[in-house]
């Protein structure tokens, strides 16, 4: 079957995902998506599942589910033949097209299981986008911070103050940290001033990843694109930190968690809700409830116990970059702090 025979919505999705991977610096994953669009057919259970996908392929990140399932086989050593066409091996589209059908057939049970769940990443480089926002909060409030993250995945970005950062000539953090972030700075570098003290931190996710579980840890690593070795190294370094200091992570819906955390907040602290590239995936009712909770609580706070909402999200669907936004109470004023690459490769401070 050629990609001209695929259901148009599935074919379009795989090609659009390939274009996105090209733009985000993963030529191998881009090629993989395009070749999969050519070789998927109804001769395998995996092919039938993908071609007959009942949901919205784009919203469900169908291509990335399948790519993650294949990468997990390579990372775990479960399929040596498949590993021969993966980085660091140098292979062409013809090699992929010859090897993939057999790999899909060999690993049906594993791949069908991976297709059942959405991709889940914990992009460590996004901490490099968030840190200047946390420092701005520390400078403005003069208070210690209570951190609440929604969509926290494995909770690794809750440990952001254990990392080392470089923005041009400016540095911040633990010089001996195994996690080292140095995003490209476009324009003026953000300020690194501010006495950042964190007195409490916790996160939630509907399906939190427990890195102490080897299977869950493999799943998290599998969704890092196979040719982006620096991303995988950063993830592994952050996992090593979390193994020593596990973040507090709760399996709970975002609105319920925000409500719990707001009701238990301490006086004389700056409460900070934060998240990165997850807002669009929540139901509208959940988003509305979180905003309502923040506005209600925000209307009652004062400068001695302020409330902040820091997020790295696109302002509109299709934006080529995310915007780091900060809303603060009292007052409810929102500011755009920076434009950010979705994977944390660059930042433009505004």
How would you describe this protein?
This protein is α/β, with parallel strands linked by helices. 41% of the residues lie in helices and 18% in strands. It has 12 helices and 12 strands. The strands form 2 sheets. The protein has a 9-stranded mixed beta sheet, sandwiched between helices. It has a 3-stranded mixed beta sheet with strand order 3-2-4, with no helix packed on it. The protein is globular. The model has no long low-confidence stretch (mean pLDDT 94).
Features:
alpha/beta; 2 domains; three-stranded mixed sheet; 12 strands
What's this, in brief?
The protein has 350 residues and is α/β, with parallel strands linked by helices.
Q: Secondary-structure map with pairings?
A:
Layout: H1 8-23, H2 27-39, H3 45-51, H4 62-76, H5 80-83, H6 93-106, H7 108-115, H8 127-141, E1 145-150, E2 164-167, E3 170-173, E4 180-181, E5 184-185, E6 198-205, H9 214-222, H10 229-244, E7 249-251, H11 254-263, E8 270-276, H12 284-298, E9 307-313, E10 322-329, E11 333-340, E12 346-349
Parallel strand pairs: 1-6, 1-8, 2-4, 5-12, 6-7, 8-9
Antiparallel strand pairs: 2-3, 9-10, 10-11, 11-12
Helix pairs in contact: 1-2, 2-6, 3-7, 4-7, 4-9, 11-12
Number of strands: 12
Q: Low-confidence runs (pLDDT<50, min 5 residues)?
A: none
Count of the domains:
2
> What is the overall silhouette?
globular
Beginning-to-end CA distance, first to last residue: 49 Å
Strand adjacency order, main sheet: 5-12-11-10-9-8-1-6-7
Mean pLDDT, to the nearest integer, reads 94
Query: What structural class should be given to the helix and strand makeup?
Result: alpha/beta
Which percent range fits the helix content?
40-55%
Order of helices and strands: HHHHHHHHEEEEEEHHEHEHEEEE
Strand content: 15-25%
Main sheet: strands, sense, barrel: 9 strands, mixed
What does the radius of gyration come to? 21 Å
């Amino acid at each position: 079957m050629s990609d001209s025979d695929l259901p148009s919505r599935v074919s379009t999705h795989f090609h659009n995902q390939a274009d996105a991977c090209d733009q985000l610096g993963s030529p191998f994953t881009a090629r993989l998506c395009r070749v999969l669009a050519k070789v998927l057919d109804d001769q395998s259970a995996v092919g039938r599942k993908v071609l007959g996908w009942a949901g919205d392929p784009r919203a469900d990140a169908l291509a990335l589910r399948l790519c993650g399932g294949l990468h997990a086989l390579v990372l775990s050593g479960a399929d040596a033949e498949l590993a021969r066409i993966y980085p660091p091996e140098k292979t062409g589209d013809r090699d992929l097209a010859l090897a993939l059908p057999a790999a899909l057939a060999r690993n049906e049970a594993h791949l069908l299981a991976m297709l059942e769940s959405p991709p889940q990443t914990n992009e460590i480089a996004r901490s490099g986008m968030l840190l200047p926002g946390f420092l701005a909060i520390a400078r403005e409030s003069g208070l210690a911070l209570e951190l609440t993250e929604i969509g926290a995945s494995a909770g690794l970005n809750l440990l952001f103050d254990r990392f080392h950062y470089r923005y041009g000539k400016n540095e911040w953090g633990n010089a001996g940290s195994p996690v080292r972030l140095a995003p490209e700075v476009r324009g003026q570098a953000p300020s690194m001033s501010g006495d950042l003290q964190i007195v409490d931190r916790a996160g939630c996710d509907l399906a939190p990843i427990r890195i102490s579980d080897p299977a869950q840890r493999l799943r998290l690593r599998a969704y890092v694109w196979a040719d982006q070795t620096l991303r995988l190294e950063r993830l592994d370094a952050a996992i090593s930190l979390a193994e020593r200091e596990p973040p507090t992570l709760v399996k709970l819906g975002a609105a319920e968690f925000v409500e719990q955390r707001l009701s238990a907040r301490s006086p004389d602290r700056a409460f900070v809700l934060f998240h990165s590239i997850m807002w669009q995936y929540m139901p509208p009712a959940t988003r509305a409830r979180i905003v309502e909770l923040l506005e209600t609580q925000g209307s009652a706070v004062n400068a001695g116990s302020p409330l902040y909402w820091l997020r790295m999200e696109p302002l509109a669907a299709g934006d080529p970059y995310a915007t780091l936004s900060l809303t603060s109470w009292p007052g409810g004023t929102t500011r755009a702090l920076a434009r950010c690459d979705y994977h944390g490769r660059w930042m433009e401070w505004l």
